[in-house]
Amino acid sequence: GAGVSQSPRYKVAKRGQDVALRCDPISGHVSLFWYQQALGQGPEFLTYFQNEAQLDKSGLPSDRFFAERPEGSVSTLKIQRTQQEDSAVYLCASSLGTSGGWYFGPGTRLTVT
Amino acid sequence: GESVGLHLPTLSVQEGDNSIINCAYSNSASDYFIWYKQESGKGPQFIIDIRSNMDKRQGQRVTVLLNKTVKHLSLQIAATQPGDSAVYFCAENGGTSGTYKYIFGTGTRLKVLA
Fold first, then answer.
1. A5-98 architecture in CATH?
2. DSSP sequence for chain A
3. Which of A31, A60, A82, B59 has the fewest other C-beta atoms within 10 Å?
């Protein structure tokens, strides 16, 4: 595909369930970012990968959040024991570098009931 | 598509009029700014950027103005079209060149009236 894709587009989880959100970046993009967007808010940084290396995970809100990009391409954001406050849209972006030229995916809307 | 926000500040403009969307940024050290457009059900899309050594930058139908004295950014859209309806976010880099931790504003919803 031509852009960043994310799956699933919508996910409903019961509180306490684990979820896995997938991001397929643009082929050849070195940098990959995850952002969390709460309803009515701007996106907030979660974590950053350069190839397979997770260089910054300072934005992950708790140790229930885990992200990986084992082969430097597809990335998965995993949330364990989901809580209601985890409800948000999770955005993935990729780029050739770090400072601009980002392409965002459509996001995964997670609703925890 | 899903809504990105139900209680955002909203600007309503007539089709064909000019739109001005404002943003107050938070960090006086920020030296790079971006405007994004987010349509319902989609991720943010880059519109235009500006560095702090400039006070104005023009693109196709869009102009960004930067006032560092009052930490204010604005996006002007000329001859607003129905396809411009979206939520618009400003983002700042917090003063760290090359940072990926952009700080996004809360957004403004633009509604274009036919």
1. Sandwich (2.60)
2. --S-EEE-SEEEE-TT--EEEEEE--TT--EEEEEEE-TTS--EEEEEEETTEEEE-TT--STTEEEE-TTSS-EEEEESS--GGG-EEEEEEEESSSSS--EE---EEEEE-
3. B59
